Every structure is written in structure tokens, then in C-alpha cells.
Q: What sequence folds into this?
């Protein structure tokens, strides 16, 4: 009976690659605390041997489902790569004072289905745009839903001020952009994004190494990272899909659609 228990633990541990949690489960199943130490040794041995040959069952399913899941450490072969080589370009940017029609078109465009959009500001027509902040797709949808518009671009006041409750009520299932009706007159209005954007988003230079970008995503739980040049101009955007695509290749990831929330 003892050998059968150890064999079952080794088989299960080699498949799912769990150690401590599986030890507790096996101890609870047998109601015998004395089996804890040998079960732990068996599970650790099964995990070490299994990792030498192939990944665990859960990791294999993550790859089969093409989920942009990031592991704890960056791939070993990524140390020679930079953010420039994995970022998505060109980037869809919005101005601080943007027309409602432009925002609706950007959100409706399936080619720019990122969750966040850099906000830029042009000093004049001859100067390139510099990064001013970042605004989320969910925030733009709430603003459109409550019609927080400026009737004319020379006005500085919005028609209605939003409260934090308005964003909380829409979370976590924000309405799709197709369900929000915007008339032709409203498309000519202007939306001031400066009050709602994040004025200090996380950025990296183009020369930042891929392991550094990877650690920022893992440590801060980021969904997107703006890549800028030495003049703080937006040159690209790194998402979890970009990092996962590098790890897994393009196999199956082209069919992934980013979440709209």
C-alpha cells in the first residue's frame, strides 16, 4: 500500500508538477501525517526529472490554447534582444484634445484593438508628438457612454463630470463600442483626455533589453508598455502578446484576440 501511494504521487507529480500543495492533498487523502516527508521527496524527484524532458500538463495546455501567459523568467535566448525587436508598430495614438469621431473610429478598428492608447501632444505642426500619458480602452468607452464631450474645441469645460462610481458600475464588463450610439453632430465634438489619462505611464527606451521588459511585466502586472526614443516620442508598444509570441513563435497566437476590458 505504501509503495502504491508513492507511485501514485510520483505519477501525479510528474504530470502536474505540483509539490507542496499535492503533498497536502495526499496527506489529507490518507489521513496519515507520517507520509508527508516521503511524499514530498517523491514529488520533488518527479518534478526535477520531468522538467528535464518536457513541461508540465498545465504549461502544455497554456501553449495549446495560445494564452499570453508569462513565465517567471525570460527565455534564455532573449538576452541579446531589445524592446525595438519585439514591440508593435505603428502605434495608434490620441491627442489630449481629440475629436469624438476619431476616438470612435479607433475603438471600432479591429487592427488597433489594444487595451491602452498613448496620449500625445503636438507643440506645432513641425514638431513630432511627445508622450503625455496613457488612457485605457475601458475609460474611453465610459466617457463615450456618458457623453463627456466639449461642444467646441475652444471651450475648456466638459458638459458633465464623471464620478468614480461611474467607472465602478461599468467594471468588469464594459459595454462594447458597437453598443454606444454617437450621432453625427456628436462626432464633431471634442473630448478632453487630460483629466482621465494616466500622466505617468511606464515607459522603456528602444535599447532596453528584453529580460528587463519581461521583468517589468512580471513584477508590475503590466498589460502594455510604451517604448519611447531619447526625445520621449512614442515609437512602439509592447504587450503580453508580443512577449508570448516571442516565446512560442507565431504558432496559434495570430488567432488570439485581446480582451476588451
A:
Amino acid at each position: 500500500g505504501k509503495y502504491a501511494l508513492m507511485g501514485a504521487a510520483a505519477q501525479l507529480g510528474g504530470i502536474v508538477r505540483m509539490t507542496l500543495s499535492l503533498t497536502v492533498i495526499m496527506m489529507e487523502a490518507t489521513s496519515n501525517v507520517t507520509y508527508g516527508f516521503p511524499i514530498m521527496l517523491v514529488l520533488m524527484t518527479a518534478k526535477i526529472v520531468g522538467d528535464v524532458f518536457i513541461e508540465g500538463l498545465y504549461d502544455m495546455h497554456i501553449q495549446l490554447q495560445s494564452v499570453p501567459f508569462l513565465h517567471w523568467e525570460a527565455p534564455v535566448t532573449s538576452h541579446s534582444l531589445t524592446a525595438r525587436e519585439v514591440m508593435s508598430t505603428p502605434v495608434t495614438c490620441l491627442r489630449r484634445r481629440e475629436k469624438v469621431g476619431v476616438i470612435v473610429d479607433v475603438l471600432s478598428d479591429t487592427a488597433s484593438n489594444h487595451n491602452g492608447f498613448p496620449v500625445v501632444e503636438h507643440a506645432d505642426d513641425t514638431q513630432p508628438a511627445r508622450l503625455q500619458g496613457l488612457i485605457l480602452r475601458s475609460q474611453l468607452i465610459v466617457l463615450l457612454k456618458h457623453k463627456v464631450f466639449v461642444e467646441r474645441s475652444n471651450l475648456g469645460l466638459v458638459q458633465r463630470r464623471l464620478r468614480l462610481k461611474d467607472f465602478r458600475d461599468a467594471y468588469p464588463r464594459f459595454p462594447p463600442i458597437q453598443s454606444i450610439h454617437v450621432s453625427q453632430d456628436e462626432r464633431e465634438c471634442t473630448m478632453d483626455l487630460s483629466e482621465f489619462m494616466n500622466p505617468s505611464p511606464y515607459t522603456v527606451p528602444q535599447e532596453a533589453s528584453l529580460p528587463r521588459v519581461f521583468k517589468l511585466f512580471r513584477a508590475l502586472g503590466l498589460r502594455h508598455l510604451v517604448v519611447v526614443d531619447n526625445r520621449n516620442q512614442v515609437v512602439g508598444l509592447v504587450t503580453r502578446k508580443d512577449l508570448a509570441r516571442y516565446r512560442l513563435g507565431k504558432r496559434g497566437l495570430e488567432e488570439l484576440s485581446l480582451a476588451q476590458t
